[in-house]
Structure formats: C-alpha cells, structure tokens
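Exercise 7. Given the encoded structure of a 272-residue chain, write a plausible sequence.
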C-alpha cells in the first residue's frame, strides 16, 4: 500500500468484497472489481484472479488497470508460475523479484514473459474459504529489475505490507464467493420447498372439491385424481390444477366409464 492509501479506503474495499448476497451477483464482475481495487491500493501494474466457477471451469478476471497484461501473464502460467504454485499448495507465494536466479529457475517461461512486459516483481495469495481454494489473486508490480535486497532493506517492509493487503482482499473475496454460493443454495432450496408446498395445497384443494361434489371420501377422490394423472402421464399438481380451474370434467376424470370411486381400474373384458 506504500503508505498512500488510508485505512478507511481499505475498510471500504473489504466491505465491498464481502457484499455478495444478492440475486444479480456476477462472480467475474465481482472479481474484476476486487482485482481493480487491489491494483489501486498497491499501485501495481496489474492484478488478476484465476478461479474456478460452479462447473469447475478455470476462468480469469482482471481489473481495468492493466487488464490485458494480467490476462496474458495468468494465461502464460500453464507451465508454471506463482498463481499455479499458490493454487496447488493453498498458501501464498511471497513477493519474488523476477531478476533473481530463483525466479528464473522456478518459472523460466513465465519469468521471461513477465520481464518482457515490464514486470519486476510478483506474488500470489489464495482465495480460501475454510479448507477450499476457490482461486488465486496474482499481483504484478513494476518493481525495479534488481537482485533481492539485503536483509533490513526498506523493500522487505513494503513487500510484507503489500502481501498483507493482498491477503486481506483475497480472504474477503473468498468469503464473498462462499457466502453467495451458500445463499444461492438456500434460495434454490427455499424455492423448491415453496413449490412443493404450493403443489400439495392444490392437490388437497382438488381432493376436497371432488369429495364434496361426488359425496365421497377424500381417499377415493385422491385415487381418482391419481389414476387420471397416470393415464395421461401428468403430474398430480397439473391434474389438480385442471380440477380447480374447471377444465377437467367428471367423465374425463373417471376415464369415460361409470366407474365407482375407490375401485381399481379393470380391463374392458372384466367390466362386461
């Protein structure tokens, strides 16, 4: 953060990152915003997130600041890079200066590509929801292309601060994603239960109407409704709705024969 962004700004960004419980939530748009906020807070060249959606498809989100650079370097990590390392271990990859021999040995293709694009330092932090890694936030900075500083150099303190800010954002984003997925699951379950309850109410209403009209028991009315639904390959709820709105007459409901309610269907030969 380099001392130029207030704590209030960081607090506002964290609140925005966890505000995901809504019906119009879009994961990619949300993570693009998280990336943009991180890039602004750290004054980085670019920040991107590699994540998996509900179908386990790998996707990339990047803020408007350096979006093309972030996408290029995230896609370039198919043979190795900080993002893949962080995703595989579930732990952060601390700041690495790409002029170092360590970076070149660990990720030769990625390091070469990143240096060509003017990136001098990178690090990555996982988006963790408890024990599950939902994605990785990768920061690309224009740190001077120089060897790692000696112990006690101001760079170390700045790197540690930047890593903590990125970790806080990644944690908040992971909580936001987890909360939205939980919200979606509970919302869908609630809708299913409401639909089942509404269907049951219609069936009970249809039973009552038939029982009153035919002066018979509820069980006999239900059996007639069930047989009709089976004959016509309809859901019970559909047949019940037809009874309620008057589109199903008694003759059709009884199969076109003077059938006594409560008696099983019989073949024509047995009815003679």
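Solution.
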């Amino acid at each position: 953060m380099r001392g130029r962004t207030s704590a209030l700004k960081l607090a506002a960004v964290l609140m925005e990152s966890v505000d995901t419980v809504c019906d119009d939530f879009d994961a990619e748009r949300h993570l693009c915003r998280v990336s943009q906020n991180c890039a602004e807070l750290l004054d980085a060249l670019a920040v991107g997130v590699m994540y998996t959606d509900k179908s386990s498809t790998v996707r990339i989100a990047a803020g408007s600041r350096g979006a093309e650079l972030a996408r290029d370097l995230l896609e370039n990590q198919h043979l190795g890079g900080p993002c893949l390392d962080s995703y595989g271990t579930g732990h952060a990859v601390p700041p690495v200066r790409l002029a170092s021999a360590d970076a070149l040995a660990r990720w030769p293709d990625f390091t070469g590509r990143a240096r060509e694009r003017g990136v001098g330092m990178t690090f990555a932090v996982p988006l963790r929801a408890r024990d599950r890694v939902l994605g990785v936030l990768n920061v690309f900075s224009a740190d001077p292309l120089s060897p790692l500083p000696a112990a006690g150099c101001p760079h170390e303190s700045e790197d540690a601060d930047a890593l903590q800010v990125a970790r806080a954002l990644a944690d908040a984003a992971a909580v936001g994603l987890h909360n939205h997925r939980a919200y979606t699951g509970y919302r869908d379950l609630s809708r299913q239960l409401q639909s089942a309850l509404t269907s049951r109410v219609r069936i009970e209403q249809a039973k009552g109407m038939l029982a009153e009209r035919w002066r018979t028991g509820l069980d006999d009315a239900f059996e007639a409704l069930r047989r009709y639904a089976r004959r016509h390959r309809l859901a019970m709820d559909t047949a019940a709705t037809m009874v309620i709105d008057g589109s199903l007459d008694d003759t059709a409901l009884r199969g076109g024969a003077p059938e006594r309610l409560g008696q099983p269907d019989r073949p024509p030969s047995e009815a003679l």
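Remark. The two ends are 91 Å apart (CA to CA). Students should compare their own answers with the one above.
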